[in-house]
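Hello,

Following up on my earlier ticket. Below are the two sequence lines again, exactly as submitted.
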Amino acid sequence: MMQSTPAAVRTVDVTKVYKIGHLDFPALRGVSVKIEKGELTAIIGPSGSGKSTLLNVMGALDRPTTGHIYIDGVDLRKLSDDRLALLRNRKIGFVYQSFNLIQRLTASENVQMPLIARALDMKTRQARALKVLESVDLGRKSNKRPSELSGGEQQRVAIARALVTQPTIVIADEPTGNLDSKTTGFVLDLIVQINKTLRTTFIIVTHNPEVAERTQRIISIRDGLVDKDQYIHRLDSFSGQEKLA
Amino acid sequence: MDRKVRSALTILGIMIGGAIIMALVASSSGLSAGVNSQVSKIGASTLIVRPASAGFVQGGQSQYTLSSQDTEILQHIPDVSLVVPYYSKNVQISLGGQVQSGTLWGIEPKMLPVLYKGLSLMAGSYPAATDPTAAVIGNGVAYPVNSDSQLIFVNQAISMNVGSTAKGLTFLVKGIFAQYGSVLFTNIDNNVYISFQAAQIILKTPYYSGFFVMVDSPDNVASVQAAIQSQYAANVNIINAGSIVSSVTAITTQMTVFLGAIGAVSLFVAAVGIANTMFVSVMERTREIGVLKAIGYKGSQIMSMFLSEAVLTGIIGGILGTILGYGLAFMLGGDIPLSSFGRGFRGPGGGAAAPGASAPPVFTPELIIFCLAFPILVSVAAGLYPAWRASKMNPITALKYE
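Thanks for your patience. The regenerated structure is below:
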């Protein structure tokens, strides 16, 4: 089927080589993947497989040694560091295992941070932050600091921060790694719901098979290469319905 | 809480540095201005010639003497326009049951406004030169320090003792000077002025306390002084108001620079504190910097964020330091001890300490602006490198920082 809109993320034969002393360490050895808009994709692999490196280059935090990366059709190779920052602000959201919220700021202020980079006025920022926090069911706790929130609540704030700029993709690096199983379930339910209602593209790096099972597609990385790439749920029939494989 | 304590201490360092500059420079400027205003009252064209103290006199005399023949000698020096002899003696003035120290001057009263620029009568008139019973008094005699109201009025009598020379002197007050203050070695406000002839009779001496020598132009003062010096050698003291100004200006300029340098050094130390605080802050917020870069902050925005914290430190420290320095300057400022200008110089009457003069600090707009702006500049300079380091951090490395 012809795609009329560009893919959310497309990597073309991407390599990444780290120099450690005199040695070259190839973290990625030619990765080509295409993730369409609206997909909920897991990237799995053992430690040292290159999955975090792939996440970093997809998230425009790092540049590949060779190859091309396209975010929403834009070739990242052509962008300066400042323009990459701009692209991250507009098109990419990040969620981390350790939440990475700024402790001295409230939930609302944390969510507003990407909007401050855009120099939006305070009223607009506050309104948008509150709306997004309400969508993750934390509207009533917008004035709480991270230390006053549970782990699950903090991760929901982090998800809200990732969503506030209405990004093309949200990259989540072990988003449930610091949560108990019950909270893991809640957070995954939230991600699935957001993906379904907002059609936000999620790319989740995880080593937890239960997390991977909740996604539509699993890309397996091993030794810097794509080992397996399969859809496990149909794209438009997602909500616990028919599993493909 | 730790961050707030660190910030407060950093601001304190800037505040102290700024306050030192403000206080010391304002004080020394006040000193300079105080001396200059004192000396300018008498003008740059007037020399005061007095007998040298005992010990400086040539020929073994106990004290050199000046008399009427010296009036002629001085008058014949080229470029001298006027020679005014005077007597001056310390007195104890009886005022409302109390005794106040002052100085009795025997000098043509009408000459006083000529000698002291801006001096004027508040009440009454000048007595005749031949009237031995009349006096014009200074404002501080009519309004003594211990009294809330005027104690002596025109046409009232005033009594005083001149040491053991003349006890129970009484004069009729004909005029009262407006408030004037100190000029070099005498405080006009504390003096009583009688005519030269009256002083000669009362003090029973043909020997003068000194001469005012007025020169026709400030340009000729040096040559007149040289001529007097060559005539009298070390037997007289010559007070040259113009050269006092130059000497004081040179000293106070050096003092101002030196004191300002002390303040600048303390600000530099404070700047090192700022840099240290900012490095610690950048290190502590490494992960935060990584997150900010991940969500789209440019390096320049990160740098601005940290620099603005340094600027804020400088602004708060500068304002508080300026306020503190203002108060400190008044604590440091005080009297100018003018009694020691010139070799062997003593107060009138010999031996008594001459009055000082108040020297309030001087706060020029330039000094205030400097004390507000310099701490900000110092803070920005100190914060520049740490802020730049923050802007250049690799976001991936920063996000992994523990």
